[in-house]
Each structure stands twice: as C-alpha cells, then as structure tokens.
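1st attempt posting a full record on here, be nice pls
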Amino acid sequence: MKTTQIRIASYNIRKARGLDLRRRPERILQVVNGLEADVVLLQEADKRLGVRPTALPRRMIEAETDFDVLPVAESEASIGWHGNAVLIRKGFSASGVRQITLPGLEPRGAVRLTLDVGTGLTIVGTHLGLRRRDRISQFEKLNAATAADAHCVIAGDFNEWSGQKGLEPLADRFDIHAPGQSFHARRPIAALDRFALSHGLGMDDAGVEQGPLARIASDHLPIWSDISVPAATC
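the predicted structure (as tokens):
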C-alpha cells in the first residue's frame, strides 16, 4: 500500500518559561524549528490570567519560523484553546478546525483539525487533567469526537504516569506510543507526552528531542513521530 509520511511533534512549552525561570519565546521557537515537523501541537501556549495572552507572539512566529498558526483561539491575544495551539508548516492545508471541551474538575480542552494529506488525517492536540478519573472521561470524549474519522492521531501531554492504566478508553481504536521519557526536562523519568494512532496508521520513527536547548527551554522535552498515512488513490 502506498503511503504519505508526515512528521508530527508535540511540546508542552510551559508558557515559554524555562528552567532558568526566564520567559524566552525565541528559545522555544528555536527548539520547534529543530524538530523539522510538519505539524507542531503545543500545550501551555498561553498565559493563564486575563484574556490568556499568548506566550509565543504571532509576529515572532511569522518572522522566525516557516509555520502558520491554526485559528483555534477565541481572541486576538491568544493563539490557543485552553493552552492548546497548533502550528502548521506553510504549504499544508487544514479543514474541520474546532474546539473540544473536555469534562473534569479542571478546565481542559482539545483542538481538532483535518490535514489534507494522503486520504486525510484528523489530528487532535490536547493537555489532559491531573486526576486519572478525569483523564479517563476525557479520553472517552476524544474517542467519541473522532469516531467518524478513518485516520486519527491524538497527541499531547497525557499527564499519565502509567504505561498501562488510564488509557483503556482508546484501546479498541488506537495504538498508544510513548517515544521516550519527556518529563522532567532536567532529569527525564516519565513518558507523559504521547501519541495515539488509530489502526491503519503506521509509525516509521519517533523520538524525544534532548538537545541542550530543549533541556532548559521548558520542563517538558518535545516528542516527534514520523507517521505513514494511506495515500489517496486515483
């Protein structure tokens, strides 16, 4: 079967505040550029207070990267939804962009898009809650929200320390991959950041960016994966 390969990355940027306690968005963008991804899913991309202003200025993204910001925000001050933002490399097109409100004690959400690649690929970026009971409900919501999509990737900060428990709602449709330990950036001990690929998608390669800049730019390390999507037939 012919396939089309796409690289997706996920990165909890901690509002661009590094381990040196400095907020340096240009440093985050340097790390993002180094991932050589086609789609970058960001978590904690907005600050928490007021109108939740972006931690990554739009002008800086335009000037220093080859990415467009997906329109998921509700205000010009922000680039995300509940901190979830999406960068798409110029030349790619997306449709079906929408927000998904997630259940739970804390305000949480996800963003969804369909990328025009191969036979079509639905991508969901999310940052799940701190309580497992909430994460299970959130996975159930995401599973239902993508039930009609033939090919789907759910990625982000799953906040799940276990490799087996808490992931059951996705088990029937998805294979879950943890490219490696991504938290804490100073001394990685947990694979909190993961990809869930619906059956029919292939993962050709994956990893965790562990360069010196990534180790100080945020408390999470970014993850990436090369995913094979069935090619469209003529």
